[in-house]
Design goal:
With 384 residues, the chain is of the alpha/beta class. Helices cover 28% and strands 24% of the residues. The structure holds zinc ion (2 copies). One zinc ion (ZN) binds next to helix 5.
């Protein structure tokens, strides 16, 4: 109800990419956007990354209650308004929008916001936590689901929860800023926060996309000397080699499990799975050294199952998932930007820029592996 009242007071036009129905291609629409609710900010999006999760949302592989919906969760832009109860973000701030959290549940209170007990709902319900949506379409004001990750950033203007906004230095180009969002933070955070890599450790990274390459860059920064990158795309493996992978395995012509065993001798200490394929996770367990850990960051459709060899687990091995690399965005993102500026974390190597109107080409290029992290940039037309 609150959003309805806000909408009646003032609406803004937003040019947004909308999924009309499950599996449908995105269409660009003019939507009406209400005012920020308490704890929210309005943001003029300058650029947004596309993450594989957006495609899972498009395809209904996460249980979005209803379509149409506006995806997008790596938005960067300028704050144009702040709702009540927002103290730490101001109009005019440049921000990167990250993952949402409630700030009140036991996990949030102990600083573990990536595991907010409302995180799934905040990310995928297509609404605010109270069920309302600030998005409307057409003269009759048909409700549109938005608030994906509490930001729905495939839009020229959006609403976001203030606590998930990381304030950026004004000289960081918006064309690059989304590169520090969900995917890169997840990869880098997993290495920093979840793994305990030591001199002599072997790390195998399954999937050389955004998440895998970010993990690779962080592992190199930390001085890990033995890093195996596994993928089926030769171009991505080449990039992995340039970014510091000491070994690359093309899983399209070799069996990854055997290759990891041969290279490491005794198995890898950590295997970082970014693919989300159930078979890959099961075989990763068998490529581990004793007491090794499979860290899983790949997003599989909800309900995906795998089966594990129980005797493999007995050797002190573990399989462990992570959301957002366990990271607190307001700590990790500034750290990654600082490393980038020192030349130690070359995120620009992952990013390819597109105009917002070219969103279909950007998605196709990502899906067929031509580019790693597409970042859409809004033009003046979309922002007018
Ligand atoms: Zn919470
Ligand atoms: Zn993501």
């Amino acid at each position: 109800m609150a959003s309805g009242a806000a909408l009646a007071r003032s609406t803004l036009k937003s040019t947004a990419a909308v999924v009309a129905s499950r599996g449908a291609a995105l269409t660009i629409e003019q939507l009406d956007l209400g005012e920020p609710a308490p704890g929210e900010i309005s943001v003029r999006i300058a650029a947004t990354g596309i993450c594989r999760t957006d495609l899972h949302i498009r395809d209904g592989e996460y249980p979005i209650p209803d379509f149409p919906v506006v995806p997008g969760h790596e938005g960067a832009g300028v704050v144009t308004a702040v709702g009540s109860a927002v103290a730490d973000v101001r109009v005019g701030d440049h921000v990167l929008l990250t993952y949402p959290f409630c700030g009140k549940c036991p996990n949030c209170v102990r600083g573990s916001m990536a595991y907010c007990e409302h995180g799934f709902e905040l990310s995928f319900a297509g609404a605010r936590l109270d069920g309302s949506s600030g998005w409307r379409l057409g003269d009759d004001g048909t409700r549109v689901n938005g608030h994906i990750f509490q930001q729905s950033s495939f839009a020229s203007h959006t609403l976001a929860t203030a606590n998930s906004a990381v304030i950026l230095d004004r000289d960081l180009p918006f064309s690059l800023a989304p590169g520090f969002g969900c995917g890169v933070s997840t990869g880098a955070g997993s290495v920093l926060n979840v793994m305990d890599l030591r001199p002599g450790s072997w790390l195998a990274i399954l999937g050389a996309g955004t998440v895998g390459l970010a993990a690779l860059m962080m592992a190199r920064h930390l001085g890990v000397q033995q890093i195996i990158a596994v993928d089926t795309n030769p171009r991505r493996l080449e990039t992995a080699g340039e970014l510091g992978a000491t070994h690359t395995v093309d899983a399209s012509d070799r069996e990854a499990r055997g290759a990891i065993r041969r290279l490491t001798g005794r198995g890898a200490d950590y295997i970082f799975d970014t693919t989300g394929h159930p078979g890959v996770v099961a075989s990763a367990l068998e490529s581990l050294a004793m007491t090794g850990t499979v860290v899983m960051a790949g997003a599989a459709p909800v309900g995906t199952r795998t089966s594990l060899d129980m005797s493999s687990l007995l050797n002190g091995r573990a399989v462990r998932g992570t959301i957002q690399g366990d990271a607190e965005a307001r700590k990790l993102v500034p750290h990654l930007i600082e490393l980038y500026e020192q030349g130690r974390f070359p995120v620009d190597r992952l990013v390819s820029n597109y105009r917002f109107a070219d969103i279909h080409r950007a998605i196709a290029d990502m899906e067929n592996g031509r580019v790693i992290k597409p970042v859409l940039q809004m033009t003046d037309d979309e922002l007018s």
